[in-house]
Amino acid sequence: MELLVLPECYSGGMPPDKPAAEAVALSPPYAHLISALRDCPPTMTVVAGFTELSAGGRLHSSAAVVRAGRLVGEVTRKLFPREPAFSPGADLPLYRQEGHAFGVVICNDANLVEPARLLALAGARILACPLNNDLPVEVTRGWAVRTRSTLIARAVENDCWVIAADVSGTAGGREGGGATRIIAPDGRIVAAAQADEPGLVMADIEVPDRSFLQRWNVAQNPAVLKQWLDHVSGQRSGT
């Protein structure tokens, strides 16, 4: 499978506010985005970020999976957006191409354990991560090591390949994170772009059929399960 991952909000750029998001938002069937990818080889699967205006009238940071000029499955919507213009999504679609299953984890969602883990438990062996770390310079640099370490963590803890595409460069007091890279399930960085300039990274990867991902057998230690359930219950009650 040939897989190309593009950054979050690849189409239209990251909108700074709701009016800007509305100005670039695409609605189903996302003809403008699919047309922009028309020159991609028909054998290539593309994960492209864009601002979506859903049928329900909400704005989302979404990613479409496109192959041979057609949308593959449902779009993935960012679950935990930090941008005030965006509403959270509610699903984690699993995509299958040529015998491989993969999922999409959009930017801030990769900072959390649960979205990637749910995809891995559903059978994903590849996590495509469209990122858009276009932030004030001091914030970008403060997060630089953490961002890269987080991507490695998602790969190792889920026994998945991680393919991340980020923005780079500096303009107007803001700096892109430049965390574009391909990470093996054991945490090895197979390929990485220069942090301060645009780049495309490529690698041939082998995706084993079996995963080493450990399932949590609660019967082995019921006390831990009780602590987890108590914690979730406390969160729901606000204590």
TrEMBL record:
CDD domains attached to this UniProt entry: nitrilase
SUPFAM superfamilies: Carbon-nitrogen hydrolase
CN hydrolase domain residues: 1-207
Keyword match Hydrolase: yes
UniProt GO molecular function: N-carbamoylputrescine amidase activity
Gene3D superfamilies according to UniProt: Carbon-nitrogen hydrolase (3.60.110.10)
Keywords on record: Hydrolase
Source domain of life: Bacteria
InterPro entries linked: Aliph_Amidase/BUP (IPR050345), C-N_Hydrolase (IPR003010), C-N_Hydrolase_sf (IPR036526)
GO biological process: putrescine biosynthetic process from arginine
PANTHER family: BETA-UREIDOPROPIONASE, NITRILASE C965.09-RELATED
Name of the protein in its database record: Putative amidohydrolase
Organism: Nonomuraea jabiensis
Lineage: Bacteria, Bacillati, Actinomycetota, Actinomycetes, Streptosporangiales
